[in-house]
Amino acid sequence: MIGKMARRTLYEYPSDMEPLLPEDRDGSLAALALQTIRGSERLRGKLHPATRRGVAELVQSMNSYYSNLIEGHRTRPMDIDRALRQEFGGNREQRNLQQLHWAHVETERWMKVALGTMSTAEVCSGDFLCAIHREFYSRLPDEFKNIASETGRLERIESGALRMSVVSVGIHVPPAPASLPRFLKRFSSFYAPLVEESQRGLIAAAAAHHRLAWIHPFLDGNGRVTRLFTLAWFSKIGLAGDGLWTLSRGFARQQSEYKAMLAQADERRLNDFDGRGYLSDRRLGNFCEFVLKTALDQIAFMEDLLELEALQRRVLAFGKRLETEGALLKGSGELLRDILLRGEIPRGDVARIVGVSPRTGQTISGALLRANLLQSDSPKGSLRLGFPALASASYFPNLFPAGAD
């Protein structure tokens, strides 16, 4: 909500958002962080690198789906596939939602490239946060670039610009617009040294997720920027399992609790035993625990989905079903399963794997390429598995909500 917050005192000093890291007296947060680090390492070794890249692209799309769902925007996986191919629907509402998804995925792609040339300290900088916002909003249709004030007047959202208006989020009134640069400078100076693959670094990432949402630096889009920022932190320290899991799915599946935990961590210090900062140390600790448990849950979910023996059975069964329906030629299922196990194969191997003539092998691989069930970097390049919406529900049950397609 935008407007003048009468009779409310606005936060003006960075000390108002202390503590920036919970105390963790009993070491429970550190234990959860260690489990998360180890779980992510296990996940990375589940698949051949070529197959892993394909799954990571699917997870990237899933990350956008769930982040948008948290904001109240639901897109179908089939429409998402079309959006990534720049095939936007004729219906205006559908087209806008596709563009919203496309903007998120493109911003995430931009972000991952940018991280390659950045220092760990820059992940927490105000410049990087504004760049995430700019990259996202510069790709949106005009319908998503306006927000209503308390009086109903529309205000324009400027891509990458800090807000110039007083806002409220539930009962929380974020810092005064003029003080935002000071808050972001303190945010960066405290958290930048903690962007590291360590237990303390992971707890800090969870705490920073809340404190950035608390600062609410932009007129709109703060939730998406905050989730992308946390993904950037995890990616920079190698904790994202090469892109094989995402927090957004966990947050969306327990959306009410996620928002409640964010709101509770806005609370001021509860009593003399609740830390030494202006805000509640206990509530911040509770939020960090929630984030770490959500991370563990999502890592475990993806570990189960990527169990190789079960995954190859699902891939084979999917291919066989389409063969029976006449959508694919005989032998396609075995080929998909073989490529899953090997990661990628030369095109000349198709005929030998399926047991057909080279010409028929070309026909089979061509049909699979057109369906995006196989991918290749060039007309004569090696073949690897693709993960279109057509197959994702069969390969990875429950990746998207039931009925999402």
**How are the strands of the largest sheet arranged?**
3-5-4
User: Roughly what is the average pLDDT, rounded to an integer?
Assistant: 91
CATH topology of the largest domain: Fic-like fold
**CATH class descriptor name of the largest domain:** Mainly Alpha
How many helical stretches? 16
CATH architecture classification name of the largest domain: Orthogonal Bundle
Q: Quote the beta fraction.
A: under 5%
Low-pLDDT stretches: 1-8
**Describe the biggest sheet?**
3 strands, antiparallel
| CATH level 4 superfamily of the largest domain | Fido-like domain
Radius of gyration: 23 Å
Shape category: globular
Q: In terms of structural class, how would the helical and strand content be classed?
A: mainly alpha
Give the count of structural domains.
2
Total E-strand runs: 5
Helical content stands at 55-70%
Order of helices and strands: HHHHHEEHHHHHHHHEHHEEH
| CA(first)-CA(last) distance | 33 Å
Tell me about this structure.
- This protein has helices at residues 28-44, 49-70, 77-84, 92-115, 126-137, 180-191, 199-215, 222-236, 247-253, 255-264, 281-305, 308-325, 332-342, 349-354, 358-370, 389-395; strands spanning 146-148, 154-156, 344-345, 374-375, 383-385.
- By secondary structure, the chain is mainly α.
- Strands 3-5-4 form a three-stranded antiparallel β-sheet, sandwiched between helices. A two-stranded antiparallel ribbon has the order 1-2.
- Helix 1 crosses helix 7.
- The longest helix has 25 residues, at 281-305.
